[in-house]
Amino acid sequence: MANVGSNPSFVWRSLLAARVIIFRGLKWRVGNGRTIGVYTHKWLSYKPIPRTEAVLDTRVCELIDEDARQWDRGKLDAMFSQRTREEILSIPLDHLQSQFIMANVGSNPSFVWRSLLAARVIIFRGSKWRVGNGRTIGVYTHKWLSYKPIPRTEAVLDIRVCELIDEDARQWDRGKLDAMFSQRTREEILSIPLDHLQSQDMLVWIENAAQKLSVKTAYRVALRSSTQSWTEYSGAREDGPTWNKVWDLKVPPKVRMFLWRAVSTGLPTRDKLHQRRVNVDTQCEFCFHNTETVHHILRECPFAQNVWALFSG
Known about the structure:
There is one protein chain. With 313 residues, the chain is mainly α. Strands 1-2 form a two-stranded antiparallel sheet. Helices cover 39% and strands 5% of the residues. Residues 228-238 have low confidence and may be disordered. Among the domains are: 30-89, no CATH class; 127-205; 239-312, no CATH class. This is Reverse transcriptase zinc-binding domain-containing protein.
């Protein structure tokens, strides 16, 4: 429910604009139905009217006969009015295996679709899969570990996480892990608890304790993604003492903020504006020789070096 604020950045305005589009102008397209709540998500033209007392957390996937790849008419007859049943039955099930995180741009994408796929990069960077039954997570195709798994042997790329689990013992199959992965990968997999084997796999947000996507945390991911790689930022984020020193400096707040933005490469330099599709010349306006980056304008540019020389005597 965040507000635009008095002086919003380009990224912040874009995220808020996308939020309006998502919540007002779109509805869910049924893929495998595992993430769509029958009564909690907008997937029909109106809110479904159940004929019987319904469970509010029912998922659309529970209304689908996956073996027959069609709607379960028995469940629909028992749960919904005729009008609702007719609308549900009119929805094709051509995308039972599709997922937004894996979708392609297509040959003639709309502006809305291109915008959503651009935001998908942010979602991918700030989230990972939590293992439930492991049936929808590809070992080598989905982000479920802190890095891409390194197999010890030639592996089948379409193998699923569920194939690494001994369901009878309700634990990881150590024999398969020993045969397939390096020690580092085995240790990380074994550290993942299997407390949700009866549940669906879930894509969770890892940028806050609640594991819920918010505009604020998405903005942070977008800001750092435009300037740093995931690995680089992960190391910087853990360097708490350095950031504490910045915020404890006895200088005006605007100076601390400027320093923080400079270290985070968040200043609106010409190269950053160009990355955000602003039509500007990226050349430094002081030396006219190099691209205006944060490092250049504060350290490398002859003009900046002359300024620092004045302070050093």
